[in-house]
Please model this.
Amino acid sequence: APAASAMLDIDVSALGAAAKKGLLIPRVALTSRNVAGPIATPTTSLLVYNTATAGAAPNNVVPGFYYWDGASWVAFSGQGSNNWSLLGNSGTAVATNFLGTTDAVDFVIRTNNTERIRILSGGNIGIGTTTPTYRLDMRGTVAATYLANFENTSATGSALQAYNNSGTVNAFGGISNISGGVAIYGVHLQNTGGGIGVYGTSNSSNTYGVRGSVPTTGAWLGFGGVFTGGLGYVNGLYNLSDARVKSNVEKINNAIEKIKKINGVSYIYNSKEYAT
Model:
């Protein structure tokens, strides 16, 4: 018996193999998704099979099944449909076509059925976390390597830039919360020629190119900055003078006489071996 809810029910399951056939949908050559012709005044839900490749993006058509939605031809799948194709999409319009949600629900990307990236409805992006608290929040447990890597293979330019143009907020910040850790670490790998591990500069004479500080209270005092190995260049050296960092403090006898014994010299900087 035919299905009670169907106006047309075609069942060929009881027929022999040679007698089984399919339903052939009318074939037409559409010219564009937003042009009804060659069918005059198509009724909403009218189904056709398009045989033509025609039109200009984003309303171009390719061979396949289309139905009329009352205003345009909509492909069942792929290009021209309301679905994203696994083989790529063309003719998309950035104002209307997108991946994501239309309500206040997070957008999740998975691989191997495991969540890898989450974009909160508020815009924060999390990699390795379902609750990102920053615009880009990356978390993970990575031993003996890095959580993220930025590599620029060009002879010029930078691998990573941080820029802030508002208020007094830092453009780039590093925080270490473990004993012996390093907040910001820079290495120049080449063992010949010039190079800089960490470089800082300021266009204002009232600010700092690179600044370091430590707490000035407590039982032990560290260093705001330490330079070791080779030659060090400092345009202004400010040394901490505090009784807490000194021992065996003794008065210097005949200090003036000792200063007089210092032999002054003049010199020319060896720029051939130590380039500025």
Q: What stands out?
A: The first strand starts at residue 27 and ends at 28.
